[in-house]
Design a protein that fits this description.
The complex is a heterodimer. By secondary structure, chain A is α/β, with parallel strands linked by helices. Chain A has 17 helices and eight strands. Helix content of chain A is about 55%, strand content about 5%. By secondary structure, chain B is mostly helical. Chain B folds into two domains: about 30 residues; about 70 residues.
């Protein structure tokens, strides 16, 4: 026989709670519209502001109107408002300054850092709520912690912790403070660690709650932090954008766990939206590199397994500055392919100067942008936009490749892997299959490079040894500076 | 089995929202040009800063020193995520916009 059990708590009503819920609905709508607008170039900026407005609304109304249900059935508003306001102030000032001061080249690590802060926030919430919930359940003499709230707390801690530790490692790698640590053993350690984490969560849930017994929540936190480190450690630095995007969606899920815990719709929708859109974004990024997410995570990139071609006795040809100046001045179409080297050298403004200078001589200069040039998809577009380069001068990879045969000179500035022919020719290469800009199809190629060092993916580049390629060694900024004055003096 | 069914019934609204939000997130993001990958990621990064509401709630009923300290840190970190995230995104997008005006 089917029996009907009353599960829902009594329905509570207060005008404030109603207003708060309405503000959460508005905030959710603003998040959705903001995200939607963010995915179109024309509306992106206002989309960001809309989402920010939704956030401000949700924060303000939470402080004003949120009521917590106490054990005796009464409700209490938000206490410690002074402290909360103080914390908000500190966070706002520091966050604002950091975001305003950071150089455009260091943007990826900044995003990673902020992401880590969100993950840590989610983890801390769980750390504080777990003892509360355990005490409450112990008082009720419940046999186990098998309920949705406990699951949300534990998963929030686990995911938030992994996201925090992982983001910090990703930050360190992008900032070049931490090197890659590759070890095949780590793969198995990681897998077993993941298993242990989940097993531990299940263990805690089946345990009988004892008030004040909190060792397992701290153990879980420690395990999550360690896993975050070992998860990101073996992944190559070049894959960090994908990792950040993935950790970004993790933090979204961790935030949603908080929403589940507090029955808070704004946190739930906001978190899940980021979780799912972040996952899709991660997959899109992987597609742009023609790799699978699993391949990124397991980290076959830059591994020593690739046989590669031995370049031992090949030599490169250099080009003098004056030759380069003459060559450029008497060309019709020039394509600049920028890479992270350009960003590091802060040479984007000089590129624009070169573009104007050549433009005045009737030479058409465009930029060929590889989708993953730089350290993040779209990173180059941002940097060149900073230097006032016009939209229509930026060509996507496909367009650049289509016009390659009519291009007189290609200047590769600090790019390496995105112009590596091995991606098309050498099946043993780790980047085989990744679409690249086919600069070797142009009539001449000038490669600006600091040295013959390998690119971020640590693979040899046959482009440098091709008959039409000439090298121009030196710091991108200094070299471009000299090149510009050389052209002026012609 | 009954426990699982009970779980679904008890949390049906949250589960509903989660499933719809997953589809919505996918729908909203697909067909985004690669130029916008970075700003979009950064903007989404700021949105998950909504976790700060949770931090405010815990801080709001913190009653001992330890949870006060942890709560304070959580609110600071959450604010960093929100404010830093939105400001960084705006800075990125500002550069695109400047160009548009001059055309």
């Amino acid at each position: 026989m089917e029996t009907i059990v009353t599960l829902t708590k009594n329905f509570e009503f207060s005008e404030y709670i109603s207003i708060l819920e309405i503000s959460y609905i508005l905030a959710s709508v603003l998040f959705i519209l903001g995200l939607k607008k963010l995915s179109h170039p024309d509306t992106a900026r206002s989309g960001n502001l809309w989402a920010a407005a939704g956030m401000g609304l949700a924060i303000l109304f939470t402080i004003l109107f949120h009521k917590t249900r106490l054990e005796d059935g009464t409700f209490a508003g938000i206490h410690n408002v002074g402290w909360i306001a103080g914390a908000l102030m500190i966070g706002t000032v520091v966050g604002w300054m950091a975001a305003k001061k950071v150089k455009m080249t260091a943007m990826p690590q900044m995003v990673s850092l902020f992401n880590g802060m969100g993950g840590a926030c989610a983890a801390l919430i769980s750390l504080m709520e777990f003892p509360n919930m355990q005490t409450e359940l112990a008082d009720q003499q419940v046999a186990s912690m098998l309920n949705g709230e406990a699951l949300a707390i534990l998963l929030g801690l686990m995911i938030g912790g992994v996201s925090f530790a992982g983001s910090m490692i990703a930050f360190g790698k992008l900032d070049e403070r931490i090197g890659d640590y590759k070890s095949p053993v780590l793969r198995y350690i990681n897998l077993s660690f993941l298993f242990i984490l989940f097993a531990f969560v299940i263990f805690i849930m089946f345990k009988t709650p004892v008030a004040g017994e909190n060792w397992m929540i701290y153990t879980l936190a420690a395990l999550a932090l360690i896993y975050g480190v070992t998860f990101v450690m073996p992944i190559g630095g070049a894959d960090m954008p994908v990792v950040i995007s993935l950790l970004n969606s993790f933090t979204g899920v961790a935030a949603a766990m908080g929403g589940f815990l507090y029955h808070n719709q704004a946190m739930l929708t906001g978190g899940i939206l980021v979780g799912s859109s972040g996952t899709i974004l991660t997959i899109l990024m992987c597609k742009a590199m023609n790799r699978s997410l699993l391949n990124v995570i397991i980290g076959a990139f830059g591994g020593s397994s690739a046989a590669g071609v031995d370049f031992g006795d090949k030599t490169v040809k250099e080009i003098s500055l004056s030759d380069a100046a003459v060559l450029l001045s008497y060309s019709q179409k020039v394509l600049v392919v920028p890479g992270y080297g350009l960003a590091v050298a802060q040479a984007q403004h000089l590129c624009h100067e070169l573009e104007n200078l050549l433009g005045s001589k009737g030479v058409e200069l465009k930029y060929g942008i590889h989708p993953v040039a730089g350290r993040m998809p779209g990173h180059m577009n941002v940097l060149l936009a900073e230097a006032d380069v016009a939209y229509e001068k930026l060509q996507e990879m496909e367009d650049a490749n289509n016009e390659m045969n009519n291009t007189d000179v290609v200047i590769v500035v600090g790019a390496n892997d995105v112009v590596n022919p091995a991606a098309e020719e050498d099946p043993s290469s780790p980047i085989y299959g990744m679409p690249v800009i086919q600069v070797w199809g142009a009539k001449n190629t000038i490669v600006m490079k600091r040295s013959m060092a390998k690119g971020y993916a640590a693979i040899e580049n046959n482009l440098f040894f091709m008959p039409k390629s000439r090298m121009l060694f030196g710091d991108a900024k200094a070299t471009l500076q000299k090149l510009v004055s050389e052209i002026k003096n012609l | 089995m009954t426990d699982i069914l009970k779980f679904f019934l008890e949390y049906r609204e949250a589960i509903f929202i989660i499933i719809l939000s997953i589809f919505l997130g996918i729908e909203v993001i697909s067909h985004v040009p690669s130029v916008l990958h970075t700003p979009l990621m950064s903007g989404a990064n700021a949105i998950h800063g909504v976790v700060i509401i949770g931090a405010i709630i815990v801080m709001g009923h913190a009653d001992n020193l330890l949870s006060m300290i942890l709560g304070f840190i959580a609110v600071v970190l959450g604010t960093l995520n929100v404010v830093g995230g939105f400001v960084v995104t705006d800075r990125m997008l500002e550069m695109f916009k400047k160009k548009k005006k001059q055309q």
